[in-house]
Amino acid sequence: MTESFDAFRYVRYMRSRGLWIAGSCGVAVTLALGISLMLPREYTAVARMVIEPPAGTDLRSTMAVSPIYLESLRTYEHFATGDSLFQKAVDRFGLHSDGGRPIESLKKRILKVEIIRNTRIMEISATLPDARKAQALAQFLAEATADLNRSLIVQGDRELLQSIERQAAETRAHLDQLDAAWSRLLSDEPVQELASAQENAAMLRSRLEEQIVNADVQASEAAQSTTHSRAAELRRQVEILDRQTAEREKLLAGRTAHRDKLDAERKAAQTALTAIEGRLYEARSDAGYRGERLKIIDPGIVPERPSSPNVPLNLVAALLLGTVLPVLYFTLEMAWREQHSSGRRTVFHE
Question: Measured over all CA atoms, what is the biggest interatomic distance in the chain, rounded to whole angstroms?
């Protein structure tokens, strides 16, 4: 081109090449249409699932979910794209006959699983030449994904219940041992007899002290040796009674401490058993509702329009390409002509 770009000259030049540009567009559109009609048609069926929060979750928390929680829901995409599940689908629908490809490339071409952004909706897309088979495959994968999630929840509940039941059985067995020990303690280490003996000993000591006082009074009045010896005998009886009382008091304290300790252990075991049985009741009541639940909200329909090839898109792309390429070529050609003519004029003036 010349040093200053002349838009009018450029437009006139392109108008002069209009037939070539139109022919290029026509050829490109014709080729795109022919190739699109020759390509095998494929249909895409979509099944949709909703990931419901665990039962009993506060509704306010379900409304204000965090981006981290929504990102964690992508875990369920791996449920639907598992190799073992897709292998079952391949065997069920005979997909190996469609080209005999390796299962990895076959899954990449056929299956697409995605959770819609900022939602709890998961879409399972299946693309096959047969529209009915594509819909059946998408529905099968959705149902299998829901069953897999349900089985995992059931398995988790079963393991939790077994763990709590085992704890309850161990605590119940321990309580039974404590009850048996308590029964043996009541028969082998009675405290009521010792308490009664202590009361009797206290009453006897009180009577002996009264007799000692009377004997001392009589001895001081009569000054008789027999009275003094009787008072001394009474004091020896009191000493013996005090020793016996001290021994019984020690024995009674030991038995009472043993009984209190065992009784405290029984009460603690009873409290623990009550708590575990409460947990077991709650676990049985909440069985099946702890984790997120996958529910099919749309099993999909048999698609009527093919998803591939996309004829309108291919035609638009061919039209654009058929226009851009010749325009670019003629622009370069015009630039070359301008430079060539400018060089010739320079030589002529010299």
Answer: 177
CATH of the domain spanning 7-157+291-343, picked from 3.30.70.1130, 3.60.10.10, 3.40.50.300, 3.60.40.10: 3.30.70.1130
Q: Return averaged pLDDT per consecutive 10 residues of the chain, 350 residues in all.
A: 61 81 86 80 92 65 62 85 90 72 84 89 93 94 92 86 92 92 84 78 80 71 62 78 82 84 92 92 77 87 84 83 85 79 55
**What is the token pair recorded at 47?**
């099944």
- Non-local (6+) Cβ contacts of 337 within 8 A are none
Element (H, E) at 111: strand 111-115
Q: Which residues of 33-42 are buried (b: 16+ CB within 10 A; e: fewer)?
A: eeebeeeeeb
Report the 10 Å Cβ neighbour count for 240: 10
The structure tokens listed for 52 are 């419901």
The number of CA neighbours under 13 Å toward the Cβ of 68 is: 0
CA separation for the pair 89, 95 (Å, rounded): 8
Say if CB 317 and CB 32 are below 8 A apart: yes
The whole-number pLDDT of residue 315 equals: 83
Nearest-angstrom CA–CA distance, 33 and 323: 16
Structure tokens at 67: 């981006």
Residues 6+ away with beta carbon under 8 Å from 119: 70
What does the domain layout of the chain look like in residue ranges?
Answer: 7-157+291-343, 168-285
**From CA 122, how far away is CA 46, in angstroms rounded?**
10
**In the block, which residue shows the tokens 């309108």?**
312
- The amino acid that residue 260 corresponds to is D
Side chain identity, residue 191: V
